[in-house]
Every structure is written in structure tokens, then in C-alpha cells.
Amino acid sequence: MSNNENMSFWQRFIKSITKANELGHEEDVMLDHDYDGIKELDNVLPPWWLYGFYITIAISVFYYIAIYILGWYGQEDEYKAELKAYQAKVAKYKKEHPELYKTENLVAFTDAQSLAKGKELFATKTCTACHLPDGGGSIGPNLTDDYWILGGGFQNVFNTISKGGRPGKGMVAWEKTISQEDRQLLASYVLSLRGTKPATPKAPEGDLWDGDKKVETNNATEPAEEKPAEE
Ligand code: HEC
Predict the structure, then answer these.
(1) CB atoms within 10 A of CB 193
(2) Which atom of ligand 1 lies closest to the CA of 189?
(3) Ligand 1 lined by 174 (C-beta under 6 Å)
(4) Which of 196, 201, 190, 197 lies closest to 123, judged by CA?
(5) 3-state secondary structure of 203
(6) Is 169 in the pocket of ligand 1 (CB under 6 A)?
(7) Quick check: CB of 165 below 6 Å from ligand 1?
């Protein structure tokens, strides 16, 4: 410290922001413990680092007050604005392509994400109450076989879910309470159950269908031993 006067401005500046202990003066800051010959120096925190730390604390207080108390534009507003912009884009696209949402143009979803959503709806919209979670059927018919009372294939299944079954049978018209997109997801999920093995399958009811084509047989409700190969 004695040679302070001989230091250049730059050296003094560096020294003031680091407060580094000079080499050769380690004993001044040496702590008195000793681990197998390893000793520890009690150096001060460098002021440049310490002030940076204080500044981040000050910014956090400023940020908190600005965003959460004064309600300035923050991340959440940014997110909401972006979401709104994208929702508007989707709405615009839907408006420009009405043919995509015409019932006769709808097709089954086959991607895992849509089928997972369909499965969720199948439970939350109470379909499981009459068809069982695995589609094996109880009050309602088995949805896993190739026999359909009201017609197989996406369009027929979608139509049944939308318009309901025969009067008095218990399958209501869901179009009043379930959106078109959700009904499309449900129909897709129902079709994906084809060929799965429910725990307590109800005997087949209705006519044998090969996809969306009815198979002409004399005794349609007889359980089929061999499922017709498809795809
Ligand atoms: C209250 C009981 C009940 C509920 C709840 C119910 N269903 Fe049904 N479902 C039936 C009955 C009964 C039939 C047979 C209708 C008939 O014979 O006309 C049926 C028929 C069907 C069929 C046609 C089966 C065939 O063989 O043609 C599909 C598909 C179907 N339901 C899907 C669903 C979906 C999806 C839901 C949930 C949104 C649902 N059901 C909720 C009772 C129910």
C-alpha cells in the first residue's frame, strides 16, 4: 500500500475495483485453519462484483414495483397479446376455409395427440358410463368390433354422436352440448378402438361393416370369427 503514489491511474483504478490483496502479503489475510497443508485466504469480495450484485437487487425492486404494483406492460401481457394475435389468425383462417368445417368434409384424426384428446373427452363427456372406458359396452353397444347398429365409418359414427341413436335407446344427440371439433375427436377415438380387446366385450350388434362400407351378410349379428383384414 505504501507505493500508492508510484501507481499509474489505471493501476489505481484496477486496485480500487478489485481490492485485490497484493502478492507477497498473503499472511495479512490468511485464516488460521489448515487442512492437510491447504490454507484459506480471507480475500474481500471485489467491489466491481459487489456493486453489480447491488444493482441487480435494485433492479429487481424496481421491476417488481413497476410490473406487479404499477401494472406496467410485463411478460404476462406480452403473452396474452401474442396469444390473442394467434387466436385471431386461427379465427381468420377458419373463416377463410369454411369447407374444412363442413360435416361432409370431416375425416377421422389419427395422430396420437388428437386420439388422446378424444379419449379424455370420452371420459369427461360421460360416454364411458354407457360404453365403458374400454368401449366394451354396457347400456350402449360394443364400440370395438366391426358391427354397427347405426353405421360404421367416420361419417356414420360422427353422425350418430351428433344426432343420437334410435328413439328411446339412450344415445342422445350430442350436437347440442358438444362442439363439432370435440365430436370429431370423439368419433376418431371411437374408431381407433377397433380391434382392441375390452375386458367384458358386449356381443356384436347391428351389421358388419368394413370401414365405411357395409358388408352384405345374411346373419349380420353373428359374431365374426375372423375380422376382415383391412387397410
Ligand atoms: C346413456 C347412455 C349412453 C351414453 C352416455 C352414450 N351412449 Fe353412445 N350409445 C348408447 C346406446 C344405447 C346406443 C345404441 C343406440 C341405438 O341402438 O340406436 C349408443 C350408440 C353409440 C354409437 C353407435 C354404435 C353403433 O353400433 O352404431 C356410438 C358411436 C356411440 N354411442 C358413441 C358415444 C359417445 C362418443 C358418447 C359420449 C359423447 C356416448 N356414446 C354416450 C348409449 C349411450
Answers:
(1) 20
(2) 35
(3) yes
(4) 190
(5) coil
(6) yes
(7) yes
140 in ligand 1 pocket by Cβ < 6 Å? yes
- Multiple choice CATH, 103-214, 3.90.1720.10, 1.10.760.10, 1.20.120.450, 3.30.70.1350: 1.10.760.10
Ligand 1: distance of its center to the CA of 111 in Å?
A: 23
Cell of 66: 413497476
DSSP string, 107-174: ----SHHHHHHHHHHHHHTTHHHHH-TTS--SSSPPSSSSEESS--HHHHHHHHHHH-SSTTSS---G
166 lines ligand 1 (CB under 6 A): yes
- Give the pLDDT of residue 125: 97
Residue nearest ligand 1's atom 1 by CA: 170
Q: Residue 137, class by beta-carbon neighbours within 10 Å (0-12 exposed, 13-18 middle, 19+ buried)?
A: buried
Cell of 90: 386461427
What string of pLDDT tens digits covers the 231 residues of the chain?
445 678 899 999 998 998 888 888 888 888 988 899 998 988 889 999 999 999 999 999 999 999 999 989 988 999 999 999 999 999 999 999 999 889 999 999 999 999 999 999 999 999 999 999 999 999 999 999 999 999 999 999 999 999 999 999 999 999 999 999 999 999 999 999 999 999 999 999 999 999 999 998 765 555 555 555 554
